[in-house]
Amino acid sequence: MVPSLEDEVFESIRKTCTQEMPSLTLTRESKLADLGIDSMKMIEIAYLLEKRFGIEVKQEILLQLTDINSVIEMVRSELAQ
Questions:
Q1: Is 31 helix (H, G, I), strand (E, B) or coil?
Q2: HEC profile for 25-75?
Q3: Which in 32, 41, 55, 73 has the greatest CB count within 10 A?
Q4: Is a pLDDT exceeding 80 seen at residue 35?
Q5: Are 75 and 55 in contact (CB under 8 A)?
Q6: Does some domain include residue 73?
Q7: What does the alpha-carbon distance between residue 37 and residue 53 come to, in Å, rounded to a whole number?
Q8: Is the residue at 45 inside a domain?
Q9: Would you say residue 70 lies in a domain?
Q10: Tens digits of per-residue pLDDT, 64-81?
Q11: Could you tell me if residue 36 is inside a domain?
Q12: Is pLDDT larger for residue 78 or for residue 2?
């Protein structure tokens, strides 16, 4: 079964977050700040998403992302362009 866009984005974030905190539980509603995602970690996630999906994540958009669902929607929007 081919993973969905949502699953791939979620998995990218999960892998990045659980490297330092393996017991961390994530949901699509998880707030990025609650997961300990600071600006440096967000840049790392953006880089992974850019490589995986061939998109460009602009810095001003990064600052607007608040939870995992917003990251998924951003990727979906960038792919639609």
A1: strand
A2: CCCCCCECHHHCCCHHHHHHHHHHHHHHHCCCCCHHHHCCCCEHHHHHHHH
A3: 32
A4: yes
A5: yes
A6: yes
A7: 21
A8: yes
A9: yes
A10: 999 999 999 999 999 998
A11: yes
A12: 78
